[in-house]
Amino acid sequence: MAKKGSRILVGLTCEVCKSQNYVVEKNKLNTQVALKLKKYCRGCKKHTTHKEKKKLD
Predict the structure, then answer these.
(1) Is 44 within 8 Å of 17 (Cβ atoms)?
(2) Does the keyword Ribosomal protein apply (predicted)?
(3) Closest Cα to residue 37, out of 27, 53, 28?
(4) What is the tens place of the pLDDT at every residue in 17-51?
């Protein structure tokens, strides 16, 4: 049975090419602002800023 808690799945989307490259888990109680991380984008072929775009079920 799945855990019931405060962690949710969110997708990280590249701000340059708008492609979703990563899915990460986030604690919605401790981190209430949107995530913004510098990650590698396969579309741009360089490190770009990725931000939280949508919540996944």
Answers:
(1) yes
(2) yes
(3) 53
(4) 999 999 999 998 998 899 999 999 999 999 999 99
Amino acid at 32: Q
Q: Please report the pLDDT score of residue 3 as a whole number.
A: 67
Give the closest residue to 34 by CA, choosing from 20, 6, 4, 13: 13
Give the dihedral sign, CA 11/12/15/17. Answer: negative
Phi, psi of 34 (to 5 degrees): -70, 140
The model's pTM: 0.79
